[in-house]
Amino acid sequence: MNQLAIRVLSRRAFMLGAPLGIGASFALPQAGQGAPVPATEPLSAWVDIAADGGVTIQFAQAEMGQGIMTALPMILAEEMDADWPRVRVVQSACDGAVFGVNGAIKTFGSTAISTNYRRFRLIGASIRRSLILQAAANLAVPAADLTTRPGMVVHHPSGRVLAYGTLAQDIRLPAQLPAITEAELKKTGTFRYIGKPLKRVDVAEKSDGSAMFGIDIRLPGMVYGAILRPDVQGETAETVDDAAARKMPGVLKIIRLPGGIGVIGQTVEITQAAKAALQVTWSAKAKARGYESESVGAAYRAAVNNTASPAVTVLKAGDAPSAIAAAPATLAATYSADHAAHLCMEPMNATVLVKGDLVEVWAGTQAPTSVQAAIAKLAGLPLAQVSVHSMLLGGGFGRRFEVDYPVDAFLLAKEMPGHPVKLIFSREDDIRQDPYRPLAVQAIAVGVNADGSLAGWRHRIAGESYFARTAPAFLQKLGGKDPLVTGLGDIAYPVGSQLMEFLRQDRGIAVGALRGTDAGYTIFAVESMIDEIAAHLGTDPVAYRLRLLRQNTRAAHVITEAAAMADWPRKRPERGLGIAYSGDLSSFLAVIAEVSLDPRSKAIKVHAIWCAFDAGLIIHPANLEAQLEGGLVFAMGLALTEQLNIKDGAAVETNFGDYQVLRMSDLPDIQIRLISSDNPPGGAGEAGIPAVAPAIANAVAQLTGGKRVRQLPMLPSRVKEALTA
Predict the structure, then answer these.
(1) Less Cβ crowding at N or C end of the chain, within 10 Å?
(2) pLDDT tens for residues 278-300?
(3) H helices of 222-367, where?
């Protein structure tokens, strides 16, 4: 079969209703597999329709358990009126010009649905219009007399039907299609698929073991790689004794790399053994040397509470300091969050084949075009000569947005031309080299009017910058603001004057985007402070939020629903209830947590979580509920147990034995109420994170008569400290 890359339409052309081109058949690997797709007649870069009526939809994002490999094609299939049981979803090529947004294919920040919703509806409607026009030509009837049912065009006056498969074989499109308008899209009440409980397309393979993740790749002639790196980020090798490693049977090469010492061998076990045999003297001059979590946190606390400390203004509305000083009541508190690691179940891995002037990459990645660009730059090759096959991901959480592991695999593979090299991080490598969630300390000062309204709000946050490492030019363009660390500065509640400041730190520790990003700790601080204000006023915290948010009907609705679910404010013996609200990601969410304290250890036990969630139009309800539940559990771990300590620049915790993730026995009863509407879809996968920690902290305060834990994670020792403060 002649395999051609079809570049039929740009995204702009799709949006404007430009003609859908016809071209030669092409083949792409199925998600995680190397088997070619059967020949079809492509109607567009996104959709092929076979002669037998089977529809193949290209999927460009990363499927990492969040279900968008089903939800996104559902949107396109809905407007196209495809016959869903006959739809096949395959992973697209890494072609940002065709499948990307602004030239890039990236999956991050729970934006896959919200970014692509309108776009995919218009694509589907354009394809449907094309089929109707072709049917009108075939039947010699006006297009206005035609409509569609799943997989077919119907001429109602005569009852004649033309199958999509038949039309796709001889379609001849006009030079210019009429533009698709919003008014021509389906109305919510007519949806066949959106909002329905369709089966996920990836579950069967994941259940029977045939699904292919990056770590599952097996290729002819494949060898394996491992890299020994320093315990302290930024150190370099000064002396290397690799004599013992080189003598090991099966060791093929030992290579000096910019970030460590690479080993290539015939098996995973050989590379790990050889890595352990290396004798390396590392430098002791990295900026991170001497970094101690506890002392760094103390320094940050001093900085945020000293208003003379230099800071970047993230948001300024009015004169917050003056408004706070003039208010009849002033409250202030400091909140902090420790480093946390991504700890994906599938450790970082990538397989790379260098063959002449071509590079081929197999990796589970959230940013395939970034991987392609990074390797092309290193190799001195055009983008077209670097192919990236996106595999299924065993957890992403922002970690697989980084390009370090595919780049490392390429550096090894170029030393073994013609042999695919699979690099696998050990769990210890994975944690030590992780770009951690920033250690963040926040100081909030609020002026409260006599009626409980917020006169002024000043929020200062200290932490390392994400963009300083990943995109320094972008950080400079933003004037030093880093929205992945601070957010945009605004809060959900109306306030007279507001000021948010960022005290950027630079201590040599790489920080990254962890599920929930800035909202995972900034909303912890905001919602804790809102509860503290309610307590100061002697007002019920649910009633106080409803008073402040009375103009925000969607916010008020989820708070009211969550309160009803939890039977607020009914008291439970020896248990506390706490509420928190989040409007992050254009979604609206309220969480109520029920907790108790162990009488001796003071460990927090979460017994129940009630969550009301409004994410606008719900595409796939069962999947949305699963995603939200996963986010709530993920957030519980960050709230209660997950802590990455650094001592003299090196990670203290290095595996599941000492980095404490939640166990099944820790999980509470979780009840979720989804609220759907005609509003555009908001984010979901990360939306469950922000409100959990403050709901738990507020429940502890209610249980203990106002004793507050203001540091994440809320370890038993910190609860004890709060109780005796």
Answers:
(1) C
(2) 999 999 999 999 999 999 999 99
(3) 243-246, 268-277, 293-304, 320-326
